[in-house]
Amino acid sequence: MRTKLRKLGVAIVLSSSLQACGTISGDGSGFSLSGKNEDVSETEAVADAAISGGSYVEAARLYEKAAGENPKSASAYLGLGRSYLAMDQLGRAEFALTRARMLDKRNPEILNELGTLKLRRLRPAEAIEFYDEALRYERNNLSALTGRAVALDFLSRHAEAQESYREGLKYYPSNFVLMSNYGLSLALSGQVGAGISMMEELLRDPDNGDTVRSNLAIAYALDGKRREARAMLTGTMSETEVSATLDHYEDMRNRFKSGKPIGYMVFS
User: Fold this and answer.
1) Whose CA is closest to 215, among 232, 193, 237, 236?
2) What is the pLDDT of residues 24-38, one digit of tens each?
3) Nearest-CA neighbor of 48 among 82, 15, 73?
4) CA distances from 117 to 8, 56, 263 (A)
5) In the chain, count of helices (H) and strands (E)?
């Protein structure tokens, strides 16, 4: 069974970093995942299209080629790091992202991906350092605000996480990922009814509703609604995995009822 963190991490990276922060250069000549207005090589432009379409192996091959053509291209190494993250090749991702940071020390998107890498390695405190640095350069960066809040929830620092979510919602008041994770954070902090209400509303979204199901399943489980939690998980994994996940959630609920922190149980 894949970890909950990895499922949530994918939502953060794809919904925030790739969609929100990629930009077309001012003259329309190229698309850059770095979020900077700069021309990109033809190879890198094709790699950008590949990663946006989910072809991560091909994207990695093309970014490798682009980096060879221009060893000083931070955006090529950033794309390469993202491709390896998507393939769960964390060691290779770290090498690529570290190189990208050497070339462009103040790029928030590089810092965000390093934060995501730390989350994937189950090191939320280290992830927060990268997200905070990204926010120093761009205080309304969606990826950094979202990732920082998730890392804080991982550490069961839910009040701080919710403050970060609310800060994000000031800039992006209808962002689905922010609202879904905010709802889960409310549930984890004991405001289960409020969290469930928020996520049940999101569930009705015709385009994105299905993506809230895993978070809502956790909230239902914490509220003792095992049948409703099962309904949220059914169809997203095998029946064996559903049963194992619900048993894990029951352990979480027991700790939750006794007042013990459960953030690490959600994200690891």
Assistant:
1) 232
2) 222 222 323 444 445
3) 82
4) 13, 16, 18
5) 16, 2
